[in-house]
Structure formats: C-alpha cells, structure tokens
From TrEMBL:
InterPro entries membership: LRR_receptor-like_kinase
Species, as recorded: Rubus argutus (Southern blackberry)
GO cellular component entries: membrane
Domain of life per record: Eukaryota
This protein's name: Uncharacterized protein
C-alpha cells in the first residue's frame, strides 16, 4: 500500500518481488520507494523551511518503520512473521511519534 505497487507489478519477476523490493531499499531509499501520492503529505507550503524539513524527516522515519513492519509481516515462512499484537502496538507507537 505504501509503495503504490502491486505484487503483480511489471517490475517484479525473475528474482524480485515486492518483499525483496522494499527490503533492499530500506532504510536509505525509503523516499524512493514510497508512493508518489504520499509526497503531498510530506511537504507543506505554509510551513517554514526548518519545520518542513523536520516534518519530512519525521514522515520518512515513520515510513521506514512502517515498511519494516511490512517486511516482518511478509516473510516467506508464516511461523517467522511478526505477531499481530506486536504489529498493532508498533503501529500505534509510530502514529504517536508522527502526530506527537
């Protein structure tokens, strides 16, 4: 959802899938893999440059954490996937960090 790509996207094939696409991009290239529709929420014309930069950094940090959760929830072996109660707790923490 956050990449704007489907598992059946044309870029996936051979040895690349959505899971690997995100995993190899983290954390340095999170802005490159995030859906371009998210960019509108990252910058705000009315904010001072320092505020805008801080906000963009905070959103990028949150996206990195959300993508990390997605990676942990989509590992190939279902028994190695993150427990849903941990996921819910982490997502709430990310929300608090973003809004707080």
């Amino acid at each position: 959802m956050f990449t704007g790509k489907r598992p059946t996207d044309h870029i996936f094939g051979d040895n690349l899938n959505l899971h690997k696409f995100v995993k190899t991009a983290l954390p340095e290239h999170v802005a490159e893999i995030a859906d371009s529709l998210l960019e509108g929420g990252i910058t705000n014309v009315e904010e001072a440059p320092d505020q805008s930069s801080l906000r963009a950094h905070k959103i990028e940090e949150c996206l990195t954490l959300v993508f990390g959760i997605g990676i942990a929830c989509s590992v190939e072996n279902p028994t190695n996937r993150k427990d849903i109660s941990d996921v819910a707790s982490e997502l709430n923490s990310i929300k608090d960090n973003l809004l707080g």
